[in-house]
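Known limitations

C-alpha cells in this collection are predictions and should be treated as such. Users comparing against experimental data should check residue numbering before alignment. To illustrate the layout, the record for Ferric uptake regulation protein is reproduced below. The input appears on top and the generated C-alpha cells appear beneath it.
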Amino acid sequence: MGGHVDQKLIKQLEETCSARGVRLTPQRKRVYELICDSNKASSAYELLDQLKVTEPQAKPPTVYRALDFLLEQGFIHRVESTNSFVSCCSFGEHKHYSHLLICDKCGNVVELQDDILIALLNSNVEKHGFQFSNHVIETHGTCQTCSSLEESNK
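Generated C-alpha cells:
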C-alpha cells in the first residue's frame, strides 16, 4: 500500500459509490489509490506495473475496465494530450469543467477550478444549445519548481 493516500478520500469514494449503487471492486479502488498516490499523471501501463506488485495476475483489461469506471463516475480525468490519468479535485461530479496545468519537465499536473472561467464556458456552451459530457482544458508549460531550477542553473 502507498501510505500517502488520503483515507478520507477513499472513504468518500466508497460512500459515493454506495450512494450511487455502483460497485467499487478492490481493483477499481486500488487503481484509484495508485492514481491519487502520484502528483503526475499515470499511464494505464504504469498503473498496471504498480498493480502487479500486489496482484501479479493483473492484465491490461483489468486496468482499462477500472479506468473506464473511474472516468465514468467522475473520480479521475484523462489527460488527453498524454493519454494518462489524474484524480479529480471536485470529487465524483459526473459533469464538470476542469483546467489542468501540465508541466512538460517533471510531469506534475495541477487541477484548477475557476468559477468565472466555468461560468463563461457554460454560457458559451448553452448559447449553442450543446449538451456536453466532459470538458477538460489542458495547459502545457513549466511549473514554478522547474522554472526556478532552470533559473538557478543559469
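For this record: The beta strands are 76-79, 84-87, 97-103, 109-112, 135-141. The longest strand covers residues 97-103. Please report discrepancies through the issue tracker.
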